[in-house]
Amino acid sequence: MVKKIVLTENEIPEKWYNIQADMPNPSLPPLHPGTKQPIGPEDLAPLFPMELIKQEVSQERWIDIPEEVRDVYKIWRPTPLFRASNFEKLLGTDCKIYYKYEGTSPSGSHKPNTAVPQAYYNKMEGVKRITTETGAGQWGSALSFACQHFGIECEVYMVKISYEQKPYRKLLMNTWGSKVYPSPTNLTEAGKKVLAANPDSPGSLGIAISEAVERAAMDPDTKYSLGSVLNHVLMHQTIVGQEAILQMEKAGDFPDIVIAPFGGGSNFAGLSFPFLQYKINEGKNIRCIASEPASCPKLTKGQFRYDFGDTVGLTPLLPMYTLGHNFVPAPLHAGGLRYHGAGVLVSQLLKDKLIEAEAVQQLDSFDAGVKFAKAEGILPAPEANHGIASVVNAVNQAKEEGVSKTILFNLCGHGHFDMSAYEAYYAGKLTNHFLSDEELTANLKELEDIPVE
Ligand SMILES: *Cc1c(COP(=O)(O)O)cnc(C)c1O
Question: Around Cβ 150, how many Cβ atoms within 10 Å?
């Protein structure tokens, strides 16, 4: 039985796959936060380099990956694809389980797949400094690595609770030359506003985004960068699924079910979009399942409507599944999944029932992740544990139906910087958390002034 399927450097994809070319229904346009009218490229120019704005709205199916970007990808790509044979045994299933492992990158997750091209296009357009936010620290680390490579300064607003829980992530960013601030800060109007209302605010991704966007908007040499949600970010990640298609071919197999954890949608899109081509264009029967935390369930409980990407309301309004931009999730240990909204492309695909979503409880996710680590050796990031819990659910469902399925999931990062979360789990300190309907309704009520669709 094949265990590990590797590719050569020459097999790193030469193009990104843009699913916008194949979607049966295009997504609605982003709206200006003030006028609430559709925005044009010039509205985004203060925040992003023009090449990324073009990619954001492009309808071309394939976009060339610059040679300079492929050269950096070669540090860790192509990433391996494994058959989880020992995990199959542990679960006692005759389903076949494969996983794509993105934890071999310098920062330990899939995030550099987009950080590197984003830093590259900024460099090409003469940008001196990039601001960003980070939750668990995965995105901040990835962008720090990429900015260091291309000689750009990087300023990271790190959600305060993670800043305190994960000192080593901060030090990793410092090693790559970044400045890291615990958000909310007193450096921005957005941060001051939040601190005035709640001096002990633990922060949230939405608040940190407001701060990073404000800093970039103020300075012509500074731009902003986002690690998930946006169309171009999801597209950059499609190298993951393209490699996986080649690797599944080499294994002589093809997945019935593709599973990935879901924060804003980038690692899910990265693995699933290239497979969705076959579903949309050839009618192949593939289930793609996004796995989100039950405490931050935008896909399974949120509303499809326009909402801001940040807390203060500085970003364009995006049509997406959202829990409301003021939503501050419970202090869940999968920091990368604590975002109130979902990427526009993924939201449209879910609305059109081309993909599915499932909510997973925190304790089930750690239970699945620890089983996986015992069987396969790799200790997953807490975010990835959610996907693994969904794999276990899929295996149980197949058993009930008396069928055998081929399952592929994205092991999007390792958990070596997240040991405090495992420590809390082993000590019995982690709890499950549901979002109550009252809480949800109250949050969505705050969106009354914003157009729905
Ligand atoms: C950031 C992150 C996520 C969540 O973000 P997506 O854009 O949904 O992929 C999940 N897993 C890991 C390891 C991450 O770093």
Answer: 18
Q: pLDDT tens-digit profile of 328-382? A: 877 777 777 888 999 999 999 999 999 999 999 999 999 999 999 999 999 999 9
**Looking at the domain that runs over 4-8+67-108+232-447, which CATH code has it been given?**
3.40.50.1100
- With 0-12 / 13-18 / 19 or more C-beta atoms within 10 angstroms meaning exposed / middle / buried, residue 93 is buried
pLDDT tens digits, one per residue of 200-238 = 998 988 899 999 999 999 999 999 999 999 999 999 999
Q: Which residues line ligand 1 (CB under 6 A)?
A: 109, 111, 138-139, 228, 261-268, 336-337, 381, 383-384, 412-413
Characterize the bridge pairing of strands 96-101 and 406-411. parallel
Q: Which amino acid is at 206?
A: G
Instruction: For ligand 1, pick from 259, 288, 412, 418 the residue to mutate: most ligand atoms within 8 Å of CB.
Output: 412
Ligand 1 centroid to Cα of residue 293, in Å, is 12
**Full-model pTM:** 0.97
Phi-psi region of 177 (alpha: psi -120 to 50; beta: other; left: phi over 0): left
Structure tokens, 185? 């800060």
